[in-house]
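Support request, priority: normal
Reporter: lab tech (M.K.)
Component: structure prediction queue

Hi team, I submitted a job for DUF3068 domain-containing protein from Micromonospora parastrephiae yesterday, and the status page still shows it as pending. I've pasted the exact input below so you can check whether something in the sequence is tripping the parser. The sequence length should be 347 residues. Please let me know if I need to resubmit or if it's stuck on your end.
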Amino acid sequence: MRPTSGAILVAAGAFLIVGAVATPLTVAPALVKVPLDQSSVTVSKAQNATVFDFSTLSERSGVNLTAHRAVRGDVEAGNSDRAVFNVGVRVIDDAAKKEITVNTDRVALDRRTAEAVACCAEDINGAPSKHEGLTYTFPFGTEKKTYQYFDNTARKAYPAKYVSTEKLQGLTVYKFEMTAEPVKIKEIEVPGKLVGSTEPTVSAGLFYTNIRTLWVEPDSGVIVQGQEKQAQTLRDATGADKVKMIDATLAFTEDTQKQQAKAAKDARNQINLLTKVVPIALGLLGLALVLLGLFIIIRATRRRPDATPVDTGERPTTDLPSQASTEPAEESTVPAAGRHAAERSEP
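Reply from support: The job had stalled in the queue. We restarted it manually and it finished. Here are the results:
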């Protein structure tokens, strides 16, 4: 092969090596983002919960609850930098087959950091509401540190602290825990007797608290398992809890955990493909092409004919005396005209 072919291979190999370096630094960050078309449904269950029965104005214990949460991406409202989610949550009394609570949420988040951003008519239960911190996912490359995580009921973010590293559904996950201290979320009109008042109707404060635990696959940021120990209580004028409106520990079902684990594995594989597999493959192929190109150039150079002058002792000559003559030719010094005259004067 000619040296030109080797040079082409060297150039192609160098291009691939540059691509190997650039892929994890520039290409991967541009492609590894929260998807715009997010679509998922998670199911959580609670056993032996306590809920308030408005028909009898009393608490009911030993209730089993199921919570369905649907997350849908608003593709048209999103762009290269942000994703917009519409979320609906229903909590159902399994035995009574009726809804305990229904909530909606609309939030915009940064597609790289997963942090909430002010945009796109964000609201909670139809009322404009600002979000902050993380919401329904953690960032890619989740770290062992404290993140701010938004609580929709309290409408504020709380520190979600890294607790430990565990194994769950065949994955290594980071465990985070956040606590929403008792906070009044609204005032409601209730019969006075519920809170120890003699008045027929009083305004009582509804207080909310929650201990939320999240198990996160760190590469993808997917929440594989979620658990909430939440309570809502009515307090009297002195601030004492009088009625439990809800007291339950809701946690992802086994099927939901498997579903989330699969989503985490799929996302992690895509990330590894862009940040590890493709760069390594490009680098190795590029190096091979460079080495092959250099080999071709060196080999072609060594096999090229020698272009230096040939030694005169080896060059054929045409001006030597004829081999038929045994003596060197005698050079005449007589002018041509005189030579002819001498020849004519011989006897």
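The two ends are 78 Å apart (CA to CA). Residues 322-347 have pLDDT under 50 and may be disordered. Let us know if anything else looks off. Ticket resolved.
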